[in-house]
Amino acid sequence: MIDGHTRVCGVIGNPVEHTMSPAIHNALADKLSHNLVYVPFHVETGEVAAAVKGAYALNVLGMNVTVPHKKEVMEGIVEIDALAEKIGAVNTLVRTEGGFKGYNTDMPGLYRAMCSENIRMEGEDVILLGAGGAARAVAFLCAEKNVAKVYMLNRSVEKVRMIAQEVREKTGKECIRPMALSDYPDLPDKKYLVIQATSVGLFPDEDRAVIEDEAFYKKIHTGFDLIYRPSNTKFMKLVKARGGKAYHGLKMLLYQGIIAYELWNNETVPEDLAGEVYEILKEKMGIKDEG
Ligand code: NAP
Question: Taking CA atoms, which of 10, 85, 193, 291 is between 20 and 30 Å from 266?
Answer without folding.
Answer: 85
